[in-house]
Amino acid sequence: MFAVRKLSACDADQLKGHLRRLSADDVRLRFGHAVKDAGMDSYAEAIDWSQTWAVGVFDKDRLHGVVELRRIGSCWSRNAELSVSVEGPYQKQGLGTRLVAEALLVARNRGLRTVFLLCLPENQPIKKIVRKFSGELTAVEGDIEARIRTMQPTPLSVMTEVFGDGCALLLSLLGQSTDVPMGGRGRA
Q1: Model pTM?
Q2: Helices (H), strands (E): how many in the chain?
Q3: At residue 30, what are phi and psi to the nearest 5 degrees?
Q4: pLDDT below 70 — which residues of the chain?
Q5: Hey, what domains does the chain have and what are their CATH numbers?
């Protein structure tokens, strides 16, 4: 069973480990080009956690998948950029979709109206995920730009996120790893 929870700066080492475990092809699909281990470490260390929300999938206290949501522009901007990575052995289990759903719930509840994602044309898994959330795909200078619009937050969407965070915290304190239903699946 997997645990899904938000990440913080305290999880930087877990994030570095996750990025290092990605295959060369998965690194290229995630970053758009090859990146060495030192570059991935620098990337993880440079995250501005005040403008970034990340959600991770854990299996036995080890991070194996991450979605990052970064506000684009000023703190008043209503746009964000999304990126997702799942390690090879954990792919094709719906974890990428689950992570994107969580990121869209976070975006919605923070008033972010449009989520962008840039991917390589051959990245079929992420293009499939974008379509699941009614996203638009457009060719832009040899890459694919995805655009997903979020809904307005509601009391139910906020409570769904808060409930999921509370369950994840409680389970981590109890040392249990289980799949807690979190938001983003429906249109609350």
Answers
A1: 0.88
A2: 6, 7
A3: -75, -45
A4: 175-188
A5: 3-174 (3.40.630.30)
